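Escalation from tier 1.

The customer reports that the assembly of two entities below gives different structure tokens on two consecutive runs. Tier 1 could not reproduce it. I'm attaching the input and our single run for tier 2 to review.
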Amino acid sequence: MIDRDLVALETPEYVARRARRDASDFREVFDLLDAVRDPELPELSIWDLGVLRDVRKDEVLVVAITPTYSGCPALDVIRQDIVECLRIAGIDKVEIEDQVIPAWSTDLMSQAARTRLRSGGVAPPAPHGAACPVCGSVSVEVISQFGSTACKALYRCLTCREPFDYFKEH
Amino acid sequence: MSLLSAVVGLADDALVLGHRLSEWCGKAPFLEEDLAMANTALDLLGRARLLYGHAEKLGGSNEDEYAFLRDAPDFTNLLIYELPASDFATAYARQLLIDVFDELYFDALQGSQDDTLAGIAAKSYKEAVYHVRHSSAWLLRLGDGTDESHARMQQALEDVWGYHLELFENPSADVSLVANGALPDRAVLKAAWSERVRELVERATLTVPAGNWSVAGGRTGVHTEHLGFLLAEMQHLPRTYPGVNW
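Tier 1 run:
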């Protein structure tokens, strides 16, 4: 069952990614890779984040990924996890390709991913800024522009007083 | 060959400044600032790795050889990136001048005829916009703060000011790359940079330094005495234990 309200809210960037995945000859590989999570944000898969860009076959299977932030240390773990995930599924030869073009952006994320972030206690990226993931208030203040990982900033809700992470619009 | 050396120069800038920022980890005034400096350092190290990776594809060495197995005269970073900053004000005076430059430079580099450089620039531009927000907040807080913080931020600006002119020089090897659209013309960015920095400095109740001195030489490998010490620390492990994994 497709949630039509959510579909209407999807960004054009996500719609294009989804169409490419649905038309891919390697849909099963995409499905397998849904099990690879971001080590810092386990509620999100690398597909959800927009880190997983494409799967194709040259001489071996090629998984194309893109870094979120240039120096994100999670990327090394993600590379290992992709190889391990596919090895368990019986695919031994995999090449991981880093694609920097076009640059990663939070526009690549689906609405479902944003909802999952929120239920994990992290305010999802939004053009109008952070809203408290606990009470929904938009009356919030920045504690620090730099949070526990490169992709997050630290906020406090002025309504319910909860401190929370905001996944920065990027 | 000259695109390769230009890419290595940009990578050296990012690596050396990333290392300088990482020296503050654990020493910043409070925990959130520790995270901010470490995060910015990571962005810069990430940028350096993307650029060294590009250099390798252009026929250069690999990233570890570039970072760990070269001596000071082989590094081509500009001098402003290597200056030590034992005072927090100095760290952010330098950071602000560079962040404002980076925002302009990487915005322009997104139009590079070299697709990979354009892609790296798109990432670096977004990160630079965020860095400016943070460094300009510190400029304002220290400049328009106490008498002590005002005086130290003013002194810090005076101390680093003469190093900023090198940011706007196009190395002679880059002239043809600028002409064919692989690299932006650094000189044309100066007017926008000066205007933006003047506005931020004045808002912080500080004075733009008179600017009657300048130092240059980084792109040709002529460095300050400080780079050797930085490299000694950064390269210690792989130099002492060649080929070690950690």
